[in-house]
Amino acid sequence: MKFNRRSPQAAGRQVGRLRLGTAAVAALGLGVLTACGGGSGTSDSAPESTTIKDLVVDVLSEPDSLDPFYRNTAETQRYYRLVYSSLLQWNEDGTLEPDLAAEMPEVSKDGLTWTVTLREGVTFHDGSPLTASDVVHTIEEAQDPQNGAVWLAGMSYVKSAAAQGDDTVVLTLSQPYAYLDGKLAMLPIISDEDDYKPNATYATTGNGSGPYALSSLKRGDSLVLERNEDYYGEPMKFETITFKVVPEDASRIARLTNGDSHIVPDLPTEQVDLVTERGANAVTVESNVSRLFAYPSMKADRPTSNADFRLAIAYAADRQRIVDQVYGGAGRPNSTYLTYGTLHHDEDLGLAFGAEPDLDKAKEHLAASGVKLDRKLSIIAVNDPQVTSAATILQSNLKDLGIESSVESQDVAGFYANLVSGEYDLILFDAPASTSTGFSPDYVNGGLNSQAANNFAKFADDEMDELLEVALTAQTKEEQAEAWRAVQQRDIETQGNIQLVVSQISQAWSKQLVGYEPSALLWLNTLRNVK
Hints:
By secondary structure, the chain is an alpha+beta fold. It is built from 16 helices and 18 strands.
C-alpha cells in the first residue's frame, strides 16, 4: 500500500486505513515492504551465487563528518551504526533488545532510576575495554551544550549517570521519561580514553565497538569499513563494506545492474520499475518515511522570522505537485513536524494546509506579515535531485504569491555555517520522520524546542516549549496523545520548520545479495540478518 495521490480528504481516508495497530509499531511506523510498479523481485527467490565478501553500497554523498554526535543524517548513520554500538538495539518489528547491555534496564517503580548492566568482555576497536565509565562519559559529553550533540535533547531528563564498578550504570532522572529506552538504543557509546572534541576527535577517524571498524576514507570517493574480528556479537557476513560516492542516478543503476555494486539505498521511486526490468531487486519501503521541509531563518532581519510570512509560504506550497512530480506518488502532503507513521500523530492536523495551494489564505498571511521584499527570496536546497526539484516547484508557488525567489543547490557542509548563523532565507532539507533521534514522538523536541542543540533554525516559542515539556513527561497514553496533539496544533500556527511533504524511501539491491531485505530503519540494519 502506498501513499494517496489525490485530494487531502482522500489522503486522510487512506492514512486512516494505514494507521498501525499497536503503540510500539505505530511509534516506528513499521510496515511491510511494498513493491512500486513492477514488483520487488525479492532476493529469497534469487538463485544461489558467488559469496559476496566485499559489499559495495553506492550512495549519493558521503558524511561530511564521521563524528557520531555531530550529525544524524542517513549518510552518517549508515556509517556509525556499523562502527559504534548502543546500550539497546532496535529490531525491525519495533521492539527493543539488549546490545551493549546484558539485559533490559531495571526501572524503579517511580520511573526515576534506571539501572543498566553491561556485557562482559566488550572492547573498542583500539583494544581498550568498554566499561561503565565509558557509558557515563558518553552521556555527559552528549549533555554538554558546548558540544552541540544531536543527542542532547534525548538525554535532557537524565539528571546524573554514575558507574558502579565496571559493569553497572545507574541513571537518575529528573522526571519520569517514557521514551528513554528508545534513546538508549540511539546513543552511540564512545570511549572515555578519547578526549572528545566536537567534529574533531572523530571527524575523520572512528573508535567504536560495533561489528565494523573504519579502514579508510577518501573524500569524494569512498568510505571503507573492515569487519571487527573481536566483535562481541555474531560476526557479520562481509569482510569489508565500501560506501562508494556515485551522485548520478543513472550511474548508480548501471553499476548495480552490471554487478559493480550491491545496494543502492536512495533510489528515486520512479526508477523502481526500470531497475526490476534490468534484473535487480527494487522496492519502495512503505514504512521508511522522510520529511521534506524548509528551515526558515529566524534572524530578525530576515522575512522568514515573521510567523505570518512563514504561514504564507505554507499555504502557497503545492504539496500534491511535489508528491506527484518529485516522488512519483510515493508520498503525501504534510503540515506538522510530528508526522505520519509516528505515535500520536493526528491525521487531520497533519493535513491542515491541504494538498493544493490556498492562495487566498497565503495572501492574507502575507498581508498580515507586513513584509515587503525589495529582493529575491533565497532558497537553498540540499544537494539532492529530488529536493532541488521540490525547491523549483516551491519557487513557482511563491511567484504565484508575488514573491520572486532564487534556488541554489548546496551540500550540507556548504550551507551549514549559514544555517547556524541565520544568514539565509529558506533551506530545503529532507530528513527521516523519526529515526534520526529515536522512534518516539519526542524527535519533535529536538527541532522545535528553543533549547535543543539541533534546533538549527533557532525557532523559539515559549508556548511551544511549555507544550513540549508536558508532552515529554505525560505518563498515560491518553495524556500523551492529548499533549502531542496540542504540540501539532501549535506547530500549525507557528511553522518553526515549514513542512511540505513526507515521502517513502525506495531501495535497490543486487540478486547476488541473497537473503537481504531493505530495512525499515534509517540505516542498513538488516545487513546483520544476511548469513
